[in-house]
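Review this chain:
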Amino acid sequence: MLQFPKSFFWGAATSSYQVEGDNVNSDWWEWEKRIALKGPCQKACRHYDLYREDFDLAKQLNHNSHRLSIEWSRLEPEEGRFLAKELEHYKLVIDALKERNIEPIVTLHHFTNPLWFAKIGGWQNKNAHKYFLRYAEKIIELLCENVRFWVTINEPMVYAYHAYILGAWPPQEKSFLKAQAVVDNLALSHIKAYSLIHGIYKKRNLPKPFVSIAKNMQLFEPCKRTLKNNLAVYLRDKTFNFNFLDKLTKHKTLDFIGINYYTRSLVDVKKWYFKNLFLDCCKENHSQLEKNSLGWDIYPEGLYSLLLRLKRYNLPIFILENGICTEDDTLRWAFIYRHLKSLYLAIREGVNILGYIYWSLIDNFEWDKGFSQRFGLIEVDYNTYNRRIRESAMCFAQVCKTGMLNHSCSN
């Protein structure tokens, strides 16, 4: 039996575009229609209407925190025009969490953009931070009385990688130079938003907020120990995992480090080209590890290893996403258990961890993969929008209630 700290935050996450439905003013909505995406978002999970019922389920599962995001394109469908109705909606969403004694962790940008913003270059625009700050100020002024934890940007490197290097997400660019410009603008936006948020709380005489990003991290390992692979592992680890954090800590704009962790990457470089060093992965199925339904390795040891390396920042760490898409719910509980055990071992080694947020509370729209991937603690029937609590959610609920991790799960 493993005991977690009494003050630990336990919960699950959602993101607005993936669960709300009908975000018609978003760049993703337009893109899905333009490319005829199989399984478009449409109504998603109808969380926009059903959020109270979803939060009731989270409360039933003993969650004391919930991570969610605000949909910028709902609030500001046209440049400079904010909708009072949508501002009120998000106020009610936060109120609903507070009424259930669930701590809100609010994300300002989770991959999607207003269509008008995308049309003027999006995050490539040199003034992107100004547009983002105008929106951020509006929502922070609205919610600051009831929100302590803010996440400015979700997974900046993942966003840049999929949208500007792989070209898999809108705007489907394939340029390392454009990707770097986007990363720089996202970093600048966070740095300025950090000052903005702290300034608003100080002006309102509120207790200091906790501001961070959600930084996706993965363990990079060489498939075979060759010079090319070892160099590629070093470069990817530095570029993907740590450079962004280094920049923000240098500017003293992180109150904690928000981490999203899912998997490891097995590196197998074929040629000495820049692109190969950064993109080549093992294609020969050398990994013998269990995998989720997207083919990602299940490797909780990687989380432990990364957490120990994060100690050097001397900041609290919050696991803001960790989860598995699978049709096998027994595997889901095994995944949660093994990652929580890694978390516990890191805490025992002196890593200051604030809490653990599972991805995700409910099944949802998984970006370019549509609805085929099931990450939720709660199953969603996309024909009826009925919710059904999975057995793994009940096992996790015991941990949330007691703060104790026991591999055997009896309900």
Remarks:
- The domain at 2-405 is CATH 3.20.20.80 (TIM Barrel).
